Amino acid sequence: MRYAVYFAPAESSSLWQAGCRWLGRDARTGAQVVQPVVDGWSAAEIERLTASPRMYGFHATLKPPFLLAEGCTMRQLVAAVESLAARTRIFVLPPLELGSLDGFLALQPQRADAPLRALADACVTELDHFRAAASAEELAQRRSAGLSARQEQLLTQFGYPFVLDQFRFHMTLTERLPPAQSLRLQPWLADYLAAALALPVRCDDLCLFVQQRRGDAFVLQQRFALDIR
Q1: β 171-176/104-109 pair status
Q2: What tens digit of pLDDT does each residue of 172-222 get?
Q3: Was domain 2-133+163-225 assigned CATH 2.30.30.30?
Q4: Full-prediction pTM beyond 0.85?
Q5: Which of the 8 DSSP states describes residue 88?
């Protein structure tokens, strides 16, 4: 079983509903959702190019997926995430925009944001003792993409290279696409998400996602409310 701490919009929000529909799955209920009809694309093409993000669910990663370290329990992890959430004030994310990130279409903030960065850093550092060490295969897979010296250092320390000063908040919406496909799909997807992105996106809670076995879809198991003061 793998665990991850993610940001996910409120389930009543337009953004959550639009994101789940686009990916074809609601990560909270596990229900399959009929994907939108996209001009010039077949249903099979849209299903294929959303396969990986559909498995992970509509989210932004704060603490990447991990196995529990020996001696740690899920109950202890839940308590730690709950405690971290209770010490974090609710905040509004910077406006999100659709763009290409290393070939993936994803939602990203238009500017840096201190509360968001602080929350991501806390999730990585405060929860890391729950993480089992990454396997040699996992490390090799990360390194195959080519890492900077700093990213190699973070990979060794935290099992993931894109944390702390290398963190990039993003909500992935597609597989990695060839440039021509990305440019072709982006205007339609931006228009599809425009109404949802016009509304403020609040970070109200931390979300614990769980994957029962490798290859299974991640499920949003529990939300932990942030401090409303």
Answers
A1: antiparallel
A2: 999 999 999 999 999 999 999 999 999 999 999 999 999 999 889 999 999
A3: no
A4: yes
A5: S
